[in-house]
Every structure is written in structure tokens, then in C-alpha cells.
Amino acid sequence: MSDRQRYDRATSHLDPPLAVVDLDAMAANARSMTERAAGTPIRVASKSIRSREVLRRVLDLPGYRGIMAFTLPEALWLASSGFRDILVAYPTTDRAAVAALAADEHLSREITLMVDSPEQFPLLTGRHPIRVCLDIDAGYVVGRFRAGALRSPVRTPEQAADLARRIGKNPSLRLVGLMAYEAQIAGLGDRVPGPYGVAVRFVQRRSRRELAVRRAAIVAAVREVTDLEFVNGGGTGSIETTAREPAITEVAAGSGFYHPTLFDRYSNFTGRPAALFALPVVRRPGPGVVTVLGGGYPASGAGPGRAAVPHLPEGLRHNGDEGGGEVQTPLHGSAADELKIGDRVWFRHAKAGELCERFDTLHLIEGDRVTATAPTYRGEGQTFL
Description:
The chain is α/β, with parallel strands linked by helices. It contains 11 helices and 19 strands. The strands form 3 sheets. Strands 1, 12, 13, 14, 15, 16, 17, 18 and 19 form a 9-stranded mixed β-sheet that branches. Strands 2-3-4-5-6-9-10-11 form an 8-stranded parallel β-barrel, surrounded by 4 helices. Strands 7-8 form a two-stranded antiparallel sheet. Strand 2 (42-45), helix 3 (52-59) and strand 3 form a beta-alpha-beta unit. Helix 7 crosses helix 9 (194-225). It starts with a helix and ends in a 10-residue tail after the last strand. The relative contact order is 0.17.
């Protein structure tokens, strides 16, 4: 039975639009990631999951430990419902959330905040000391050229050790971890044709070598100031190379569970699409074209490849003039004439968790049956950004 037949059969009692997670595909992706990690624990990036039920299922799998959250309010919500060891990946200026964290002994024990500047310290005060993690710039810089996300201003061992000493002098803070996310490797596929692909692979090779040396020196410098519980790095696209660095104690991953389209572009691993959404065919404007309801679900970020793409049946493509629309999406291709009004077209999102901002429920499929439903964050009334 094909994937399309399985998904259609499993959801035949439901009306689209709807979203599903193929649990068998997700489990295969999870096993692949732990094999690539080769024993290094993987911290789960919640922004790529955005469902408490799915997070629980992932954390029950061997090889996964802890959560990397994207906001402090999210971390407070997760910790209050039983999740533990939550690292907030981005600095916060949410005073009410910080006050709630620092006032609660349990929360302050389970949640760690990100810092990269003394300017952030005055916001982080309260009854209980706040656990913090030092964010390091993992970008690749040569002269005026830079590859990688613009994150922390801290790049050198000297800068990191100085900030660690400043944290140590602040009674409201306790430094417990260090993080360096190499977005130019972990979040950028290298399987790209032409000169651009050659350039990507060249920069990634150079960046891996440079970062491994610099990250080790930074970790050593900070450990001379204070002990660290963890050193986090990497992402879905760089698990195996990051995990090989002796300085690393854990890697992070999230997108690899759902395997959205932006993760089709890596040469070092392949995954199975596990999160999809279905839209109904509602009209037929002419030969070779059908129109589905809704579909304009673009992913964040710059550059091409941000639109959700028709996946099943094969042989469909967007209309170049309209693309994915707010209320309708025309689709062209050889499969269009075989589709009837009411049939489903299955799409893949470009990024992982952002799909969950469009749906309040994920229908969990095993084989050709929906075996459970899981509310998304949105379905539980939570929107954190």
C-alpha cells in the first residue's frame, strides 16, 4: 500500500484541512539520528515539534534527553506539566516570566536561560538563583565574509572566560552550560547543484575545522573558571560531526523528526517525511489544473524553498503566478486530471514546527490507521511567539 493510500485510508473519517504525523516514519528518523550521534545524548528542540504529546513520545525514545525550548513562557508551561531539564535557546526580556521562574524553586532547578552579554544580567534576578548557559558565536568568519546565524557577540576563549567570571560574581546567576550552534552547517543543506553548492560544501568543510578547534579552546577556558554540566552544539544537519568533538557533551535536534522539505538537501543523511497536511480539491479551473482550499503556509527565513509543496499524489506543482494562497492554491501537473472534487492533496511544509501554528490537532498515524490525536501548542491555546 502506498503512503498516499495509507494516509487517505487512515483519515477517511476526517474532513480536511488536517495535519498528520506518521509515527513509523518519525521513529525511523529518530533511530537514524541516534545512530548518527553514536552515543552522544540528543536534546530535543521543541520549536520543531510544538506538541506536548509528541514531545513526550520522542523523549521516551532511547538516546534523547532534555528539551531545547524557544521561549521562557514555553519552558515554564512545559516544566509545569512535568517536563524536565529545559534549556531556553534564546535570551529573554520577559520580566513576568523571569519573576515566575526565580520565585519557584522547582522551576529554577529545571530551566536554564541563555545569556551572551552582561547587559542581560539586570533582568535576571529573583528569589532563587537562575541557571544560565553561555551562548557562543559559531559562525565562520574570514575577513568581511561571514557564514552563520547572527547570534552571540562572544567568539573567543578570552571573551567567554571573561563573561563566565562576570556571571560567577553575580549572586543571582549560576553558569551551568555552554552552547554554540553552527547554523551554517546544521541548518544549511549541502546537496545543492552548481557553483553555489560547491561554495556551500567548501565553506562547511572549513567551518567544521575552524569551529572544532575554537569551540574546544572556549570550553577549556570556561572550565578553568567554573565547572559545566553540559556543552551543547549542532542540529539535525550536523549531528555526527558535532558529536565527534571531544568538547561536546550533547547535541540538539528537532527538524529531523518531521523531516520537512528543507532537510531534503543534505548528503550525509536521508529521512522520511513524517509530518504532512492535507487540503481538499474544491474546484477545477481547467484541464491539467485543480484548486485546493487554503495552502499559503510559507516558512520563515530568507531565500527560496520556503513554500509548502504538494507531495502526494506525485506530479503536482504550484502555479507560478499565484503560488500558495491564503484561501486557495491552484496546482498544475499530470496528476491534476486524475483528481476529483473532494480528493486530498498531501503537502509537506518547508520547516518542521511552523506547520503546527496552522493546525490545532495532529492525527497520529500507524500503518493505515489514526491511533491517537495530539493537540498542538495552538490547540492547547498556547502561542509563544
